[in-house]
Amino acid sequence: MARTPIPLTAATALAALMLGWPAPAPAQSDPAALQLIEQLRPRSGGQTRGIRLPAPADAGTPAPAPVAPAALPQPSMPTPAASPPIAAPAIAPVRPAPAAPVPASVAPAPRPAAPSAVPAATTAPAGVPAVSITVTFPSGSAALTPQAEAALLPLGRALSSPDLAPYRFRIEGHTDTVGDASVNQRLSERRAEAVRAYLVQKHGVSAGRLEAVGLGEERPVVQTGDNVDEPRNRRVQVINLDG
């Protein structure tokens, strides 16, 4: 019988401690999870976090009356004596010497072309909170390796945190262009489902908050030709559906 995932609460942590189970680490102790929380949380308008406003004055102490600038005493300055004008010396024009030809061996090299633009981290619509995570799968498989689970660990902590608990997310599977497009489509669907199952079973994320979708090679972050091995396109993309 599969064990039903239990959300991480204070009671859950206490029961785990009494039974000798290793309690899951909270997102607050994982810098990578905190970064994912910031990336996946909707941006609220008018936010002033990090700006300290001055404390209000004591109500019992009257504020000093403003002083107009004209009422301030002006310091007296002695009037400097007028100096006689100084005539500018006559300067004969200097004819520039002709520039010597530059040998071809020391001529400046042509300016290199500007570097190409850095590809976007996600293919989500502008303004929608989303992240892309590189997840290593065996070739042609949807099984999560230990390296894949280590890459998904901060995501599990972030999605099970109280900061992201009110939101729903879409788990997207993406591939590169190596192989048949229809095979890549089915493979991306299986991998998205595997990531969703991991988040539900290992981190207690409610299944109703997660939607798994496979997009194959349709939406790469790096545009390539056919049959190009591009690791940045083999990824899991997480999109906040309520953001």
How would you portray this structure in words?
It is a single chain. With 243 residues, the chain is of the alpha+beta class. Helices cover 23% and strands 9% of the residues. It has 4 helices and 4 strands. The protein has helices at residues 10-19, 31-40, 146-159, 181-203, and strands at 130-133, 169-174, 210-216, 235-240. A 4-stranded mixed beta sheet has the order 1-4-2-3. α2 crosses α3 (146-159). The model is unreliable at 1-23, 46-61 and 110-119 (pLDDT under 50).
CATH superfamily of the domain at 130-243, called what? Answer: OmpA-like domain
Tell me the quaternary state.
single chain
Arrangement of strands in the largest sheet: 1-4-2-3
Unreliable runs, pLDDT <50, ≥5 residues?
1-23, 46-61, 110-119
Shape: extended
Profile the largest sheet: 4 strands, mixed
Cα(first) to Cα(last) distance is 36 Å
Radius of gyration: 33 Å
Average pLDDT: 75
Query: Structural class given helices, strands, pairing?
Result: alpha+beta
* Percent of residues in β-strands: 5-15%
**So, CATH architecture of the domain at 130-243?**
2-Layer Sandwich
Helicity, as a percent range: 10-25%
Name the CATH class of the domain at 130-243.
Alpha Beta
The number of helices is: 4
Number of strands: 4
What is the CATH topology of the domain at 130-243? 60s Ribosomal Protein L30, Chain: A
